[in-house]
Structures are given as structure tokens and as C-alpha cells.
Design a protein that fits this description.
Helix content is 39%, strand content 13%. It is of the alpha/beta class. The chain has two domains: 175 residues, Alpha-Beta Complex (Aspartate Aminotransferase, domain 1); 252 residues, Type I PLP-dependent aspartate aminotransferase-like (Major domain) (Aspartate Aminotransferase, domain 2), CATH 3.40.640.10. It has a seven-stranded mixed beta sheet with strand order 2-8-7-6-5-3-4, with helices on both faces. The protein has a three-stranded antiparallel beta sheet with strand order 9-12-11. The protein has a two-stranded parallel sheet with strand order 1-10. The longest helix is centred in the C-terminal third of the chain and has 21 residues. Ligand F0G binds next to helix 4 and helix 5.
Length: 459
């Protein structure tokens, strides 16, 4: 049994939750057309839809909200963000923006245009969308170990550097606008990337003269895994590991809604390229707002400045990763497969193994997500063929590499007992798994369909 690591905080403010009956939930999910995004949040008991922007802020952060400086220009809260981010990342230039995809929107068109390519260990959906909006193509290049959900590998998020070199040679270095390392690798299951791997990728980027970018959404969780699993860093501090990693890249984008433990915010970092940073500032002014607020209110900047520090605290990270390891341990006991070893922000249940009788085109991961809501009021999401969508040319349903039901855990929000409710619900569903049916889509928009599509259970 995996030991639960007790919270390194106590609770000062609580949000009551509503408990519905199974019958009531069956009605609610039917009304939502079997799309979890269509539910009212008050009809959810445990919300695992995302770990993004759903974090609980500390009393210090709430105090920061009150002293946030709302000045349009030169606000002290802006300077607090810059000082803390410069110290943590070791980068000369920092631009706040309102969230991760805003950072992508501002930066990526400066690196990419029609006919070019971005290569990443795995692009997050919005990163891919921003690459493609420039007319460039996004190529994922994760190690093959990631594809085997039950096989053990310390760093399933790693870049396949052999294939990376082949791709660069094939397309020509001048056509590769950026190499993106996503840490942790969300789409592969919140899987970490080793410093050894990042060093190799950085050396390749340097050799071919290609900009090397970090997608830093979960960089602190990644640093904790590095400390646990990479012998060279056994005695290093989280801060030292972060410096080591970021020194290898040229730029980063960050959704602060994850590891900076806030509800809104993002950053762009440029290590030393002043000319590039001036262009970032220019685009930020038109797209997000003046450089000293970048689409953020002063109170949110202040909370971000404080959250950046709290998010790299080692006791916090041990508890945080410990929550995933505890939940995963309960699934091990029940023989439920997930992307293993468990990653940093979520347990990615292997729905293809859980519901082997449901083919990808009947969306096993979505079917399991619906069952979790009916069983215990748990809301989570499909990261599989349902989310992937149709081939833009043939309109045929695409088959995803994984059929994951993602249980993303917000930071500092749920307790051990909540995690037990989740594990117990999965066990109960496992007992009746053969009776669970797949789904068909009755209505879908042309892009990012999983947010608004309407589904119906198959008979
Ligand atoms: N990069 C990664 C790796 C992400 O996981 C996300 C968001 C983004 C960029 C975009 O950031 O939401 O602030 O605009 N991931 C969330 C999730 C939405 O649920 O995994 P954003």
C-alpha cells in the first residue's frame, strides 16, 4: 500500500459540495448530452476535469490579492512577478500574459510561418493549434516507451532524439522554426522528462541553429521527478534543477494556472535575445495589454508572484506527487491499468484496457468518464479518440495512440478521503465493466469538438 503523504498545510476556508443521488446524476448527464463539459459545476462532487486554474490559493496569496497594484503602467505587482520569475528561471526577460495559450499566441508566430515545422516531445492541443495557425505543421516526437502504458520507464515524457535528428535532416534545419520540450509531458500522461534528455535535445537544437523552447506548464513537478529518479540530482535542490533545465533552452512559455498555483496567468521567458523580446513586447501590447500587466489584473499578478515561489517548495511537491502515487497505488491493488508509473498532475486510466469491448470509434475513455460521474459525481475527461476528432480530409474518425480517462487533480483542493472515493468508484465500475456501452456523436462542431459535442449511448 502506498502511504499518503500528509498535507503540508491546514485548511482555513472551505467550499461546501452538493451530493446528488445516482438517479439525479443520470438525469443531469443526460441533460448535458453525455458531455462532461456540459454539466453545471454545482452538480459535480469531485471535479477532476483539469488541474488548470482550479488550484486553492494560500492565505499569503489571498493577502496578496488585497495589496495587488492595479496601475496600468509600472505596477509593483508586475515587478514582483518579474523579480521572482527572473530568480527562479534565470532568464533576463519575462513577459506576463493572461494564460498559457496567450503566451503561445504572442510568441509562436515570431518563430514559425507557412511551410515550417515545430517538433515537440508532444504538443499540448493549444500549442498545436497555435503552431498550425501560423501555417506551420506540428510533429510529435515522444519516446516509444510512452506508448506502452503498463511498461515501466522513468521518463516516458522524453523526446526521441534519434528521430528528432532524422526529422531535422528530412525537412531541413532552416524549416524547423522551433523545438518544444513540454515538461511534464501532459499528453503522454503527465510524464516527466529527464535532464539528460533535455541536454541532448538542446545540443541538437544548438548544432542545427534551431530555437529551443520549453513549455513550462508543469516544470516544478518535472523537477521533483528529476530529483527522485535521476541519480545526478539526488542531492540537488528543486531550484538548482530548474536553473539547470532552463539554462539549456532559449525561450519558454508557461501556463501559470498549473505549477504557479493560481487561477489565471501565464508567462513568456526569453533568456537573452533582446531583439526577440522587443518583438514579444510589441505583440503583447496589441494582443494582451501593456507590457507591465499583459492581460492580468494587478491582484492576479501579485498572487502569481507568490504562487511561483510556493509551487517550487519541495515539501509541497512531495505531497503533490504523493497524491498521484497514492491514487495510482489504489488502482494497482485493484488491477486497473493507467499510464504507469503515474505522472505529476493526473492519473491517466487506460480505458482501452478497462473497457476492451468498446472500440475506439465508440469512445471507451468517454464512456468511462460518464460512468464515473454517474457512480460518484466525479467529473473527468476523455483524452483519446473522442477528443482527437476526425481526419480533416477524409472526415473519418481518427484512432488516438491512447484511450485515456484523465483524472486531473487540482492542487491543494482534495483530501485522501476524496482520492479514496475516486478509487472506490473505479473499483465499483470495474465490476460491471462488461455491461457498459459505447457512445455515438449526434452533433459536433468542426474543431475542438470535445467541448461542445452532443453524444448518445449506444444500445
Ligand atoms: N501547455 C500545456 C502543457 C498545457 O497542459 C496547457 C493547458 C497549456 C499549454 C495551455 O495553457 O490553459 O493556460 O492556456 N492545459 C490544461 C489541461 C487546459 O487541462 O491540461 P492555458
Amino acid at each position: 500500500m502506498v502511504k499518503y503523504i500528509a498535507e503540508p498545510f491546514r485548511i482555513k476556508s472551505v467550499e461546501p459540495l452538493k451530493m446528488l443521488t445516482v438517479e439525479e446524476r443520470k438525469e443531469k448527464i443526460k441533460e448535458a448530452k453525455y458531455n462532461l463539459f456540459g454539466l453545471k459545476s454545482e452538480d459535480v462532487y469531485i471535479d477532476l476535469l483539469t488541474d488548470s486554474g482550479t488550484n486553492a490559493m494560500s492565505s499569503q496569496q489571498w493577502a496578496g490579492v488585497m495589496v495587488g497594484d492595479e496601475s496600468y503602467a509600472g505596477a509593483s505587482s508586475y515587478r514582483h512577478v518579474i523579480e521572482n520569475a527572473q530568480e527562479i528561471f534565470g532568464y533576463k526577460y519575462i513577459q506576463p500574459v493572461h494564460q498559457g495559450r496567450a503566451a503561445e499566441k504572442v510568441l509562436l508566430p515570431l518563430l514559425l510561418h507557412e511551410g515550417m515545422f515545430a517538433i515537440s516531445n508532444m504538443h499540448f492541443d493549444t500549442t498545436r493549434a497555435h503552431v498550425e495557425q501560423t501555417g506551420a505543421r506540428a510533429i510529435d516526437c515522444v519516446v516509444k516507451e510512452a506508448l506502452d502504458t503498463t511498461g515501466y520507464f522513468d521518463f516516458k515524457g522524453n523526446m526521441d532524439n534519434v528521430r528528432l535528428v532524422k526529422l531535422i535532416e528530412e525537412h531541413g534545419a532552416k524549416n524547423i522554426g522551433v523545438i518544444i520540450m513540454t515538461i511534464t509531458n501532459n499528453s503522454a500522461g503527465g510524464q516527466p522528462v529527464s535532464v539528460a534528455n533535455i541536454r541532448e535535445t538542446a545540443a541538437i537544437a544548438k548544432k542545427y541553429g534551431i530555437t529551443f523552447m520549453i513549455d513550462a506548464a508543469r516544470y516544478a513537478e518535472n523537477a521533483f521527478f528529476v530529483k527522485q529518479r535521476e541519480p545526478e540530482f539526488k542531492n540537488a535542490s528543486i531550484q538548482d534543477i530548474i536553473h539547470e533545465v532552463f539554462a539549456l533552452a532559449d525561450v519558454f512559455t508557461m501556463s501559470s494556472k498549473k505549477d504557479a498555483i493560481v487561477n489565471m496567468g501565464g508567462l513568456i521567458g526569453v533568456k537573452e535575445n533582446c531583439e526577440l523580446f522587443e518583438k514579444v513586447n510589441g505583440r503583447c501590447i496589441t494582443l494582451e495589454g501593456f507590457v507591465t500587466y499583459g492581460g492580468m489584473s494587478g491582484r492576479d499578478l501579485e498572487a502569481l508572484a507568490i504562487g511561483l515561489k510556493e509551487g517550487i517548495n519541495e515539501d509541497f511537491l512531495r505531497y503533490r506527487i504523493g497524491q498521484m502515487q497514492y491514487l495510482a497505488g489504489r488502482l494497482d491493488e485493484a488491477g486497473i491499468a493507467y499510464q504507469s508509473p503515474v505522472g505529476g498532475h493526473a492519473v491517466f486510466v487506460d480505458a482501452a484496457k478497462f473497457l476492451p469491448h468498446i472500440p475506439y470509434y465508440e469512445f471507451p475513455a468517454q464512456a468511462l468518464a460518464v460512468e464515473l460521474y454517474i457512480e460518484a459525481g466525479i467529473r473527468c475527461c476523455d483524452i483519446g479518440s473522442y477528443m482527437l476528432g476526425n481526419d480533416p480530409d477524409t472526415k473519418e474518425q481518427l484512432k488516438a495512440d491512447f484511450e485515456f480517462t484523465r483524472l486531473a487533480v487540482p492542487r491543494r483542493v482534495y483530501t485522501q478521503a476524496h482520492l479514496d472515493v475516486i478509487a472506490d468508484a473505479l473499483c465499483a465500475i470495474k465490476d460491471r465493466a462488461p455491461t457498459i456501452k459505447g457512445y455515438k456523436i449526434v452533433k459536433e462542431p468542426p474543431v475542438l469538438r470535445h467541448f461542445t459535442a452532443e453524444l448518445a449511448p449506444l444500445e
